[in-house]
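ZP: hey, is the beta-D-glucopyranose complex queued? I don't see it on the tracker
AM: it wasn't, my bad. submitting now with these inputs:
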Amino acid sequence: MWSLLIFVIIGLFVSQNSVDATHNCTILTKGSPYFPKNFKFGVATSAYQIEGGWNADGKGPSIWDDYTHHYPERITDGTNGDSAAESYRLFDLDLKALKDLGVHHYRFSIAWTRIFPTGYINSKNQKGIDYYNDVIDKLLANGIEPMVTMYHWDMPVGIQKFGGFSNTLIIEQFLDYAEELFKLFGDRVKTWITINEPNEICKGGYGTARSPPLLNASGVGDYMCFTNLLKVHGATYRLYRSKFFEKQRGQVGISLNVDYVFSQTNNTNDVNRALDYEFGLLAHPIYSKFGDFPPILLKEIGKSSRNEGRKRSRLPSLGTYWTSVIKGSADFMGMNYYTSMFINSSTEPRGENPSYERDYNYVSTVDTRCPKAKSFWLYAVPQGFEDLLKYIRDHYDNVEVKITENGWSDSGDLDDNMRIKYYKTHLQAVLNAINDGCNVTAYTAWSLLDNFQFHAGFIEHFGLYAVNMTSPNRERTPKKSAHFYNKVIKTRSIPYDF
Ligand code: BGC
């Protein structure tokens, strides 16, 4: 009887451990404790989340302005980005924070409708252009490199009218915008990110009704959006290389986000298939040797589409022309990493027919053993970060990776020890990956400031600096993590004693 009980207890321990074997919520330190000499540290924000001045000086409306105004009940605290951290008015406060942090670069985004209120380039707004010129010039004057995102979700209403990323028209609409950005700012901006997080844009806004434009057409609208977005990105890269690179000598990339996956049954095929769906869908067309969508997706979604009686696949191949435009269309991969998931293949078909969920067909769960942030989806899984970087090294020819976002949310305490712990373990993950041959050249913390967290309003705080939201002067106060990050930058290592 006792031996049976002991056997059961050991069995439980081992099965728990077979999950533990994949990661245990912490990370080992491996190799050199120093980041390479030319490694760059920065912080990130985005226009809608910090600028405010939503209709100041002739700015036009974006889909996030419209959405938050029409559906305040869909934002956790009913707020919006109308004034946010007021960076449009108070950029000098941001500059001071950036200088105090000692960052090498600052990643921010341009609000398309601040410089082209309708989205079209004939609606030029000089005041908006002046604002970004001022930001860029002041950064450079202080030795901080601008890293500029062209599109961080705030599509002009005037462009969305015609379908946004669900209409191929977006290719020329975006190209016109991008060309103006290169002309206006490319003499000083040397690192461009075309688009932030296609996964959020296409799944959130076109596959579901989580975000504007609320297309809610999973399994069709999301793939249409991915396809057009990849064309936009590829064409923008080609435009830069053919017309601007010779003079401006900058780099152009895209910021992808992915939750790394661990298989609950330790099944490597599941991990690879899941990552092809969650990440390869975007990374394979741009960074793989052959281009186009991952073969497994073309095959599986093609087959499901035929079974549904369709004449065409819901995810058609990009075709010879676009495959060649998009393949190799990036000088680096921007990577936003926050968390990892567990997956388990589903025995029953999941979700609606058709849907991305049904095509993907995994049950994915968060790892509740790991520390949880204020955001419901964010658990600290640093091993997933290291594994993801190694996956990129192995599957995408060790392309240069710039971490363009990584961060932790809480309720806003200035003594933010858990954020510091998250940064320690995640910086260690990056360092381990570098020590293991991964070509990671930059790390960008999200975020410089507490800001408008889209659906979560101002409830979730991601900043190294707190913002006094009740004061018109929106004073910024460094949190303990700001001092920690300053030390990281100064020492090029992780101050474990902090
Ligand atoms: C986005 C940011 C956002 C962060 C935290 C990322 O997906 O790029 O805009 O604030 O996640 O939610």
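AM: back. The pocket of beta-D-glucopyranose is lined by residues 46, 49, 196-197, 200, 257, 336, 405, 446, 453, 462 (CB under 6 Å).
ZP: great, adding it to the tracker
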